[in-house]
Design brief:
Length: 249
């Protein structure tokens, strides 16, 4: 599952660039005759080499980074997270006890592992993860947008931004309850038969089958809400709308 990340130390820069073009990840890993990992090369490394006059027919060892960061199969998940905190590290080879390539994980794939509550396993096929999901999980709405920060079979977590004078539809859900915390701004919320003004720091519990809406009644300040959904189903078709200023009923 990692062969499309590898070039041998005898390969040329052109061959490395071809592998990078095929894997669409922006890097290759260099192995020696014993298949041990000895270095890494990014597309940026090759670009800089060309600028400095190095030919594409030159050996990959001319530009390889031999002082690369890697993890081993026995390393903890905490070490993986710590290494990826370095803004210069975008991928990590995972090595076995013989320093041979066992797997590869990218920073984007780590974020998807966290997003989807996937159990950390060094032998997981990270290529099965959809890198673009990090972008897909931002959704525009007429009232603002929301960003999903956690996905699992039993829960969802979102950050919701409501623009000034924006208003969510009056709605309810049959299969999930919601827990809201106002992060920033203020809003007027209707929940059941109650109407209340909310400010940063307040918590609201929304049971299943309870009608609710919130409006950002500020003229110029955005309203931010942390929302946690708990239940058995989280599809958008579990939104039952009763009224909506944007005509979505």
């Amino acid at each position: 599952m990692y062969l499309n990340y590898v070039v041998k130390e005898q390969a040329t820069l052109l061959e490395a660039l071809t592998v990078i073009d095929n894997n669409q990840k922006g890097f290759v890993i260099v192995i020696d005759a014993l298949e041990k990992v000895i270095g890494t090369i990014t597309d940026g490394d090759i670009r800089r080499a060309l600028i400095n006059g190095i030919s594409l027919s030159a050996s990959v060892t001319k530009v390889a980074n031999f002082n690369f960061k890697a993890i081993h199969i026995y390393d903890s998940f905490e070490k993986v997270v710590t290494l990826f905190k370095n803004p210069k590290i975008h991928f990590l080879p995972i090595l076995n006890n013989e320093n041979k390539l066992f797997n590869v994980i990218t920073k984007k794939q780590l974020h998807i592992v966290l997003l989807e509550d996937t159990k950390w396993q060094p032998n997981y096929n990270f290529n099965l993860l959809d890198d673009e999901k990090l972008e897909y999980e931002i959704y525009n709405r007429p009232w603002g947008y929301y960003k999903t920060v956690f996905l699992s079979d039993f829960a969802r977590a979102k950050i919701i931004c409501v623009y000034p004078k924006g208003k969510l539809s009056l709605q309810e859900h049959k299969y999930r309850e919601e827990h809201w915390v106002i992060i920033k701004g203020k809003g007027r919320m209707t929940i059941g038969e109650s109407v209340k003004q909310l400010v940063a720091g307040e918590y609201i519990f929304i049971p299943k089958c309870c009608k609710h809406t919130i409006e950002n009644n500020s003229e110029n300040e955005r309203l931010f809400i942390s929302e946690v959904q708990l239940g058995s189903y989280f599809g958008e078709d579990d939104i039952i709308r009763y009224s909506d200023i944007y005509g979505r009923v």
